[in-house]
User: Which sequence fits this backbone?
């Protein structure tokens, strides 16, 4: 039995029929993955067969080895391939065949949205805004989690919970917010699956068809999508080095009378900039005068690496029209999905209704573990370490930007958070630079991905939060080399025309 | 310091100013809770003061002690009160005062939906469809969770994940589904926060304004709300003892041409009935002929206590237009929110997009723990025990219904699951019975709560899954007594008129 199994697994798939088209718009790794899938679906290659080693197939097809790995990774992700360390990649067990007269889902459903232009197999990725996992306080997490798991509340945690959240966590967070002057009399709190869900629930609650919602521009893509899916009319307000431009905001408010203004006051994603105290006060005053609901997306403020903390809009607003969003994701473990909303009681009551429709309630085990993490003081100790390391990263990224990027490049100077924004000098565009950078093993998200209104063709986001200072330096250096190469290529007028046509 | 603290905490709040109106529509416990909140907000009662013991206040106000506990529970839930076992209930710390010129949220926001008529302080609740927490395999959960927490993948689990779900779980579930003939070539899988979120994502994907969606009637409230919030036109199809009525379904299909049909084929919530094999085949045939998308909500089928398992619609449908929803919530720990969708790849790709907008991805720790639970065989062992205990519950509830409910009462005979449906004889209504039952310490959800179209005024759901056979027997006996009392009261014509006017 074992022997038969071994024999079966050792058969190498015959991929000799594969032909790829280098001139196609579809990347080669996708073409390759689709070809392999085709061979499986038409029965040429069978379940249990081993695919050739990446080096071998790269040689056969005359392709880069990274292209092969990317195709294999894509197939593995989709479940068609199973990877076994040291033994290779195998076609997964056979699925029951579907009828040939299948439903044409692609015709029935809306088209898929554009994917961010991330590449497989990059060496240094500035594309994802997340903490470094090698800095996770694993020992503390393990100890505290076991306390929760062995504790007397385990059965209660495993039972169906409340749409408002796990009561002990909810109480702790609300008391903490009351102590620090953030929660006022009449406020309540609901736990959400990170801030993303909080934004989604709020969009549902606050916005009806075509109602105007003012957002920062550039802005976090996930924030924009939440409000566009709620059918809001998006009104972009430009951000400069001190956050949202208040004079432009006043104009926007007079012209569009937005019902909601969504602001990330500290270390905004994607720019990293922080709203000055003066502007915070001005925004609260505008909102109060015009009856605008302020949604304050405050997920980065604990990641301040230098300078003095500023009050939240919620603290500055005694009239109770600010809704504050916070989260443990950016400051502890993003894989545990726990954020929360602090708002007047009528708002929270309605959010709880929508939360129940969306997914009943948030996972309780993670809520209980994060509560323990916060109550034990381990979260504060972790934050202290994170801030020290964050300052080193911040210095590394700004130093490298000054040193390696071409003359005329502008970039923001954040005091915290995970992101920094670069504006390239003409005729460079982020899309051109991205192609060149990915070929050199460096990835980032280009400006148009964060467009709230303006195209941001020369803009790009550098997420430095998950990388070491050495990786940051090396990555920005490569970006600088790619930019120099693109600039030199664009001095060739024919090439420059081509580049312009690409935009 | 300790002394001062003790003195402060020992002060008993003066609630002598409270006046309640027994004739009001607002229940007394809510009136009491709001009065206490008023005394805190106007400063009569201060943070740290202890409320009178429930027995004492009940005596003072001439109320039932349960009313007082319910009011305290409500205030505790909202954070205004802190309970300390053995010491009493205390007003929570003071919050910073809000401006008196506050935003009028209740005027700005849509009204809150009606709440289910659940009561506080009931002895036996048939209201919630959930497993009994004293049957949770806690020792196994603790052992396996620690394995995950101490394991080499802990850092990866804690890091930002994929909208598709935790890859090892996704692979495991898809391989399992392929092995059992449920997943076909071309299918993929996405993990969701239980089935509720799966329904929500699907409603988003499949339904646009006013598109017709056929649902069972009566139907699970949370399913209905998901599709109404997606602005679907709901087409109810009556359910009888063998599930959805296929002849009526054919008529509905010809008349309304629904785009989607949502079915819970096994142990449907709220009726507990199971679609016969013949009807399953007929439904698949209708869907294939008319190009209708089948959403198969299959969360209870593992809870079969007697009889032979039936194939899923997904297995019967080779054309790939069935979308299967499953979940670990009902069969293991509802507090860990892990469900999944198996569907053709184009559907799953789009669900992943919507999932990312909704909340990025599901909590990874629970996904990893439930994977371990399933892989270790502990889930199967737990299911065996659950099914044995479930059969006892099922026998207890049907025996008690036969024995204690008044003549003319009809009820379903489920072969599994957690719910049974009762139809009361005229002139009884579920609303009248509920008031009478709650006064006797028994709670349930009345029929109108599950209305997909018809009012179901005489219907009610009995969720027996979380109770012991003895509790079930006692609860149904009390229901029978309450029904008898209501029937005898309704022989008084004046009373009967009043009851009719209430409907």
Assistant:
């Amino acid at each position: 039995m074992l022997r038969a199994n071994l024999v079966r697994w050792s058969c190498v798939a015959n991929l000799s029929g594969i032909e790829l088209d280098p001139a196609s718009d579809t990347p080669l790794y996708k073409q390759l993955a689709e070809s392999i899938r085709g061979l499986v679906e038409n029965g040429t290659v069978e379940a249990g067969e081993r695919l050739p080693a990446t080096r071998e197939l790269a040689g056969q097809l005359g392709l880069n080895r990274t292209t092969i790995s990317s195709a294999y990774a894509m197939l593995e992700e989709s479940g068609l391939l199973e990877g076994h360390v040291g033994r290779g990649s195998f076609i997964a067990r056979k699925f029951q065949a579907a009828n040939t007269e299948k439903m044409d889902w692609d015709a029935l459903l809306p088209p898929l949205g554009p994917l961010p232009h991330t590449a497989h197999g990059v060496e240094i990725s500035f594309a994802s805004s997340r903490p470094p996992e090698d800095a996770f306080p694993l020992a503390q997490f393990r100890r505290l989690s076991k306390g929760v798991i062995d504790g007397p509340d385990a059965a209660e945690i495993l039972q169906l919970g409340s749409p408002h959240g796990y009561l002990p966590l909810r109480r702790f967070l609300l008391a903490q917010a009351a102590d620090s002057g953030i929660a006022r009399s009449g406020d309540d709190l609901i736990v959400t699956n990170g801030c993303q869900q909080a934004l989604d629930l709020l969009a549902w609650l606050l916005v009806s068809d075509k109602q105007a919602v003012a957002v920062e521009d550039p802005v976090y893509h996930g924030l924009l999508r939440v409000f566009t899916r709620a059918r809001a009319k998006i009104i972009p307000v430009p951000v400069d080095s001190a956050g949202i431009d208040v004079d432009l905001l006043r104009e926007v408010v007079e012209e569009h009378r937005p019902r909601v203004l969504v602001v990330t006051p500290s270390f905004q994603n994607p720019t990293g900039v922080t709203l000055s105290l003066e502007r915070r006060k001005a925004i609260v005053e505008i909102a109060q005068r015009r009856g605008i609901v302020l949604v304050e997306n405050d997920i980065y403020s604990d990641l301040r690496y230098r300078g003095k903390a500023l009050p939240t809009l919620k603290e500055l607003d005694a009239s109770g029209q600010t809704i504050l969003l916070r989260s443990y994701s950016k400051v502890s473990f993003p894989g545990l999905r726990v954020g929360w909303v602090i708002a007047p009681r009528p708002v929270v009551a309605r959010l709880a209704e929508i939360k129940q429709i969306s997914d009943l309630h948030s996972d309780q085990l993670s809520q209980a573990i994060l509560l323990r993490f916060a109550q034990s003081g381990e979260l504060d100790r972790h934050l202290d370490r994170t801030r020290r390391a964050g300052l080193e990263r911040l210095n590394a990224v700004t130093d490298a930007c000054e040193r390696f990027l071409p003359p005329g490049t502008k970039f923001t100077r954040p005091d915290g958070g995970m992101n920094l924004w670069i504006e390239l000098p003409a005729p460079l565009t982020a899309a051109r630079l991205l192609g060149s950078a990915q070929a050199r093993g460096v990835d980032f998200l280009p400006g148009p991905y964060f467009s709230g209104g303006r195209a941001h063709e020369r803009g790009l986001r550098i997420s430095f939060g998950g990388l070491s200072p050495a990786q940051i330096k090396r990555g920005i250096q490569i970006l600088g080399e790619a930019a120099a190469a693109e600039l030199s290529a664009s001095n060739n007028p024919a090439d420059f025309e081509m580049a312009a046509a690409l935009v």
Chain B has 19 helices and 16 strands. Chain B touches chain A through 103 residues (CB under 8 Å). The CA atoms of residues 395 and 458 of chain B lie 23 Å apart. The first helix of chain B runs from residue 2 to 10.
